[in-house]
Every structure is written in C-alpha cells, then in structure tokens.
Model the fold of this input.
Amino acid sequence: MRDNDPLAAFWMPFTANRAFKAHPRQLIAAKDMHYRDAAGNPILDGTSGLWCSNAGHCRTTIVEAVAQAAASMDFGPTFQLGHPLAFELASRVAGLMPEGLDRIFFTNSGSESVDTALKIALAAQRARGQGTRTRLIGRERGYHGTGFGGISVGGIVNNRRWWQGLPGVDHLPHTHDLARNAFSKGFPAHGKELADDLERLVALHGAETIAAVIVEPMASSTGVLVPPVGYLQRLRELCTRHGIILIFDEVITAFGRVGGATASGQWGVTPDIITLAKGLTNAAVPMGAVAVHRSIHDDIVGNAADGIELFHGYTYSGHPLACAAGLATLDLYHDEGLFDKADELGAYWAEAAHGLRGRPHVIDIRTIGLVAGIELQPRDGAPTKRATELFHACFDNGLLVRATGDIIALSPPLILEKAHIDEMFGKLGDLLERIG
Ligand SMILES: Cc1ncc(COP(=O)(O)O)c(C=O)c1O
Done:
C-alpha cells in the first residue's frame, strides 16, 4: 500500500515524528557557518549540526577529497586486506591522541565506538588473566549512543526504559549540582568527591569484578555538565589503583570542542581508551574510531593464538571515503588552527553566554571551550516544553540551537567569529523575553 504523504516513510530518529510531520522544518543546504531552510533563509549553525561539523559546512577540500576517493576506489575491505588511506588516517589520529593511545580501531559512529571500546576493555582484562572482571560502570546522565552497550552504561532512563541492557552494569552519580555550582564559568568548584563513589562500587562488588569505567569527560548530550575541578583526576587515580580500565567517551569533546585535539589532552587526564566520531570527518562521511593504549592492544594481540586476534569489526571500518574525509578534515583543523579557537574565543564566548543571566526562565548558564548550556526553569507540569518552544523560535528566526530536556546547548563550528557569537546570544536573549 502506498502512502501519499511524502513525509510518512522516514521514521525519524530521536524525533517527535507526529509533531515534526505536522510542522516540518527542513534543511536543504549548508555552507560554512550557515544552513539554508526550505525557503532558502540562512540559519546560523549554533550546534555544528549535531556537535559534529567542527570546521563548518561543505568545506571545499573535504568535498574534493571525498569526490576523488569515490572516483578512485569506492570501497575496499579492511578484513584481511588493507588500503593506504586507512593506515594513513590511523597514524594521523594516533598522533593527536595523548601519549600511548596510538592504536586506532575504526568504526562508523559514536555508538559503535562505544560498543567497540567496551568490548576491547573486556577482552583486555581477559587477555591479562583477569577474566573475572566483567562489570562495566557508567554514570547517571551519561550518553553513550544507542547500541546495547551504550544504553546500558548510559544514564538516560528513556534510552533504556523499553530494553533490557547488559547485565552487570552499575553507575556513578552524575555531577550536576545547581545548588552549589550554578552559573559556573569553566570547571565548577564543587563535586570532585563524587568520583569517590567508585570506591563504594568497588567495596560493593569487588575490584576483581570490574572491567571498566566509561564517562564523557564533559557530559554533553544531557545538557553540558562540565566536570568539577579535580573530578576526572580523581577518577583516574581510583581506576589505576583498582586495575580498572578508564574509557573517556570523547565523541563530542574531541577535535577542538574544548580546545586541543582531545579533552583528555587539554585537561591533562589520560584515560586508557578514548572513543571518537563526529568531528573526525567533520561529519562529511560517517566515521568513528577508538584510540587504545598500546599496552592494551599488545596484551590482546600479543597473547592471542595465531590468526585473528580480536573478533570484532565492521564492513565499513576504515571506509575509503570516510578516511579521505578524515585526512582532509585533520588538515583543515591544522591549517586553520581550529584546535586553538576555544582558547582564543573562549573568554568572549563565556562573557556573551553569561550575559543571558537575568533573562526570563534562565536558572543556570555553564560554559567551557566553545560550548554553552543554558538551563531553563521547566514549565509547571510540562517539562521540556519551554526549551522545545525556544528551539523552534530560534529556528524560525534563523538560529539553530539544541534543546535537551529544559536545557539549550550551543556548540558552534570552530570557524565562527565574534559577530556570530553576538548574533547567537542576541537572538537567544530576545526570544527568551518572548516565550512564556
Ligand atoms: C558522548 C557520545 N557518545 C556516543 C554518541 C553516539 O554517537 P552516534 O550518534 O554517532 O552513534 C554520542 C552522540 O551524540 C555522544 O555524544
């Protein structure tokens, strides 16, 4: 049976499908800092698409590199074969990671990177003769994509309400603390001690049962929850003490978002495994990666019998088009100094964002790097509605923001200029006055 509605067939991800299809807002083109809507109006991109087009849109060198790769070898398997672009990109990515995390496994998305990282952590513990370590620890309000691994260690109830996750998973408490930390610029002062909850889980389960802890260095998707001063360092200490592999999910924070190539490098805390995606290819072609400490790689690969050492991979791991996009993207980041932008513009960004303090409904503003979270007072009996309405109002006035719960998140392309910052927060300020 055919459906005459051209919007009917696409079951949209993470979307209120009925509301969207009743009032569709479509994007039809993009260049640099702007999208165009269906009527051709410019929409200033305040979110790098979905935290991913860090170098801005349709950058010529990326477009050309992808076109060339498509024309010369559209696909090449990486199972028992290889092609040069994959090796080249892996070496380039390795060179950007913190010291030691120089073995790179390619995936196609953040969710796959997370599942891959969890599997590598479990495999490493086994290879080390620590096969009783099977427990995985995530954190409340964590977002690690939508695979079964990711929803299990993630801390968003709606993402797993309908699905039973992996067994043997536990969670650390989240670090969001409005009472003590509201309107922080940079790292909030209070909450380092929340990392000590790992000691409670060790006491509860036994360290010999715990394989890995996974956290986002900054929880982004649940509303820009910046880690308290000293928190990540404390988590690192405790994981080392108890033989637990520490995974930082940097799907959002890598590639310049908070300055530097990774939050780990920028903030001086080195995990054992880092997950990547999004900014890796500037989102021009889907790709993810997992950067693994060489010792973990060597324990798994070195201890394996002859043949395949890790039974894991994806048909499109190291896809030539994605590799071409990745190489061109890393060149752009380097040539345009985009990993320095968060430092160069961060103070101006933070001032502008915190300038919204005192506007109607605003109960918190938090900023770090080129990220801002603006938390609104939820409407009585109608949580999330106010932020959704603001998201729509922004779009209709030429600005793309992200609404998550009652929080507006901003994470613009790193090519932005001060005038864009003024426009973003100027529009937001005006629209906050107008929504109820
Ligand atoms: C920290 C983190 N991990 C994993 C993911 C999942 O990535 P993907 O949607 O590419 O599967 C996301 C997506 O936003 C993310 O923010």
The pocket of pyridoxal-5'-phosphate is lined by residues 109-111, 114, 143-145, 216, 220-221, 249, 251-252, 277 (CB under 6 Å). The chain has 15 helices and 15 strands. The mean pLDDT is 97.
